[in-house]
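Q: Structure tokens for this one, please.
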Amino acid sequence: MDPIVRLLLIIILSYLAGSLPTAVIISKLFFGFDIRERGSGNMGSTNAFRVLGVKWGIVVQIVDILKGVLAVVVISHLFTGAMPFVNRTPFEDITVLRLIAGVSAVLGHIFSAFVQFRGGKGINTATGMLIAIAPVDVGIAFTLFLLVVFSSGYISLGSIVAAITIPTAMCIRYNILHVDIAGYHTMIFFCIGIALLVIYTHRANIGRLMSGNENRFAKLQIFVKQKPKI
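A: Here is the predicted structure, written as tokens:
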């Protein structure tokens, strides 16, 4: 198979996998309405938790994460062979293809072909991609995500903090703790790019956080003592 055709197939299949509108499918199939018409109007897991409940919110989140994992672990390996371009990165060819597949899935989730190119914010699919590529840094980011959510009740804030944490943790591990991270000088810019993309897709949430109008999940504030009901 021609290398360019193979690369295009990886990009297209990864994009379509990321485009799968999980929350929209579940809301229509099990609840009889389109989740984009409820809550914030977003098809991400945050709105799914708010509109569909915790159980289905978890299902949406897991499936959206798996879309990123699928692109990196499976789709990028479907078409092996020569690269269609000169690989000037310190990564092996397959790793470069995994990065391309992962980014394609994230873009698919944000600009879904199945819902008029208006999707979610990409945080879960990006998480799935990074789990397969940088599991240690994702683990650190996930821990901070939980701490922020359990203390503030803001899932959007936790997502933003987690996105920033991944390149930050990688930088600290490599430059201060002197951990050997393969392809660090390429990976760090890639993770910074993903973080900026997540921040951009959360720009409306940032505005609401600054104005004090962001939706808060009070039940998740397990680190905050709840006031007794009078």
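A few notes: The chain has ten helices and no strands. The chain has two domains: 1-133, 135-230.
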